Write a sequence for this structure.
């Protein structure tokens, strides 16, 4: 395969990025497809034309959030006839908080931030398939005496079913 990279020509992607995904955009905005993944060999990938998909970044932010008020930051509904490959959700804020991700009305993951640590968190999904009409929702609750500002970004790719 002439367009396969070997040990002398490394592609700028991490192993984790392709661990569960067949396709991943590289830093140069090309698409890499996993070719092989043998434990005793480097990760081999081939650059290909992008599959019929579209990258999506759904981002929103809110400020003035009162303490002990569960608040939705961002929501995304997968359109009819599509599949959304959820890669990750990033969240952050200016207060310690608890973030909850709900997919199709079922609590999926929860993370907390703490003082003395980063107030940013990531939920990794590695191309988790969310089907048409399902809703991805990110909510936050905090207990600080000060009003909070929070943001969240849903990242993934939209494909035809």
């Amino acid at each position: 395969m002439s367009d396969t990279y070997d040990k002398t020509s490394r592609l700028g992607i991490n192993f984790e990025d392709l661990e569960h995904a067949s396709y991943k955009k590289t830093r140069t905005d090309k698409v890499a497809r996993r070719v092989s993944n043998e434990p005793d060999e480097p990760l081999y990938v081939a650059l290909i034309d992008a599959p019929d998909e579209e990258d999506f970044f759904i981002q929103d932010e809110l400020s003035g959030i009162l303490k002990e008020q569960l608040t939705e930051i961002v929501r995304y509904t997968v359109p009819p006839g599509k599949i959304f490959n959820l890669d990750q959700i990033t969240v952050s804020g200016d207060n310690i908080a608890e973030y909850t991700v709900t997919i199709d009305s079922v609590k999926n993951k929860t993370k907390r931030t703490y003082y003395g640590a980063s107030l940013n968190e990531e939920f990794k999904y590695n191309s988790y398939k969310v089907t048409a009409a399902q809703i991805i929702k990110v909510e936050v609750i905090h207990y600080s005496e000060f009003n909070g500002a929070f943001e969240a970004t849903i990242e993934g790719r939209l494909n035809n079913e």
In short: Residues 15-19 form the longest helix (5 residues). The CA atoms of residues 63 and 90 lie 17 Å apart. The longest strand covers residues 53-65.
